[in-house]
Amino acid sequence: MINLTPPLNTADIKKLRAGDKVLITGTLFTARDQAHQRLVKEQNPAFSLDGAIIYYVGPTPARPGEIIGASGPTSSYRMDNLSVPLMERGVKMMIGKGDRSEAFQKAMIANNAVYMIATGGAGALLSSKIKSVKVIMYSDLGTEAVHALEVEAFPCFVAYDVHGNSIFKGGSIS
Amino acid sequence: MRLINANKVSEIIKDALIKINYELDNSLVTMLKKAKDKERSTLSKSILDDILQNQEIAKSRKAPLCQDTGVAVIFVEHGLDVRIDGNLYEAINTGVRLAYDEGYLRKSVVKHPFNRENTKDNTPAIIHTKLVEGDKVTFKIASKGAGSENMSKVVMLTPADGIDGVKKLVLDTVFDAGGKPCPPIIVGIGIGGNFEKSAMLAKEAILRDLEDSSDDPLIRSLENELLAEINALGVGPMGVGGETTCLAVKINTFPMHIASLPVAINIQCHSARHLEVVL
Ligand code: SF4
Questions:
Q1: For this structure, is A163 an active site residue?
Q2: What pLDDT does residue A170 have?
Q3: Which of A2, A31, B2, B260 could form a disulfide with A35 if both were Cys (CB 3.0 to 4.6 A apart)?
């Protein structure tokens, strides 16, 4: 078990191997399909991309008295192309589910970044690791807005590491 | 003629959608527990453990199991000797609207393929109606997420492709999908009919009782063989490798043209949320 706190640097990333379980404590920034389309064109995002962790999630609405609803990962492959410019601008870690393209994997290695998976469909469990939530960009996108999530011991697994290893057994491209 | 109040329809749709999004079926939980015991690596065990813990948290906190609370899919089998007092489609959509609002479920439906504007109440539901004998109305109610739906397909095979062709198609589809549809999955297969009928058969197949099997001996053995062969692929929970990729294979068939062998594969993730209600 490895504990990590963002912002992350290249040394943090190099230590990780596919299959490692990691617990993250600190800030995750959420972004999925529509937020990615906007983020890549953004000159001054509301958070620093340098060393940042992006989590692919669109949570369910919070019940009164709670801070967020179910918050598990969405499939990452839809963000493959749009992730590349974000890694070039410093994003070090992406958390989602499922395998991704070879082009993504190459760009990830070239940028010393890492791809993680969290357990898909475990939205209730993962939301219990979130301690605070703030919408920081694109509030018009609702669930797809960029949220800053403060997490404590958020569990995920290294899926692709910078040494070229993959966690996956299936998938069309890996 | 028996009359059913349209409000009653909205009410059962609402209640069912909320319930299925908070609670997994007991037989599914039992299968997931068995799958966890069978896994040999700590990684695949740990993923199944997350899934099992998740359903306990969701149930006790009345929270959605998954953030993708899906599109509502409703199959209606409408008896000829019963009438719904009001507009059936509106009654169903009212139930959907209430469920997604009052149950704090995610509204995941957009109006248009390209401007992607959210309808904000998760309507319209996808509704399929069928006329049947009798004075009852059966509703098969499901919340279907996109992760697994996006990995589904319809292929027009030729009769000469036969059973081997169908098997190869199913195995390739599941392998290529990898971890994306959140395995362990349930695979619904529709064979026959025509292009659209095969897709309907596949969708209905995933709504079947988890523990049943086909009445047709040839199809039953194909279900069993495919289950074993899919699991031999080793894709495993969330694609990380392991013993269980698939919990059940369900095949529904229908007569078809002499020149055709349509095959539809509808993938259902482990968050298999559906319920049948009879009015
Ligand atoms: S595939 Fe199913 S379990 Fe996975 S995120 Fe989608 S709805 Fe949830």
A1: no
A2: 77
A3: A31
B235 ligand 1 Cβ < 6 A: no
pLDDT of residue B166: 98
Of B184, B240, B233, the closest CA to residue B31 belongs to B184
To the nearest whole angstrom, how far is the Cα of A77 from the nearest Cα of chain B? 8
Q: Cβ of B129 under 8 Å from any chain A Cβ?
A: no
**Class of residue B156 by CB neighbours under 10 A (exposed 0-12, middle 13-18, buried 19+):** middle
Query: Cβ contact (<8 Å) for B147 and A75?
Result: yes
Domains of chain B: 2-20+65-144 (3.30.360), 147-271 (no CATH)
Quote the pTM value: 0.95
> ipTM for the complex?
0.94
Nearest chain A residue to B115 by CA distance is: A34
Mean pLDDT of the region B176-193: 97
> Residue ranges of the domains in chain A?
2-160
State the alpha helices, DSSP H only, in B39-161.
42-61, 88-102, 146-149
- Asked whether B192 lines ligand 1 (CB < 6 A), one says no
Tokens matching residue B24: 């997994």
User: Residue B38: what pLDDT?
Assistant: 97
Q: Is the Cβ–Cβ distance between B141 and B71 less than 8 Å?
A: no
Contact B43 A125 (CB under 8 A): no
**Residue B117: CA atoms inside 13 Å, Cβ hemisphere, count?**
4
Q: In this structure, what are the phi and psi dihedrals at residue A134, rounded to the nearest 5 degrees?
A: -145, 130
Q: Contact at 8 Å (CB) between B17 and B72?
A: yes
Q: Whose CA is nearest to atom 8 of ligand 1?
A: A121
Residue B229 confidence (pLDDT) above 50: yes
For the cut 90, the answer to whether the pLDDT of residue A10 exceeds it is yes
Q: CA A2 to CA B88: how far, in whole Å?
A: 54
Quote the pLDDT of residue A171: 77
Alpha-carbon gap: B83 to the closest alpha carbon of chain A (Å): 36
CATH number, domain A2-160, options 3.20.130.10, 3.30.2090.10, 3.40.50.300, 3.10.129.10: 3.20.130.10
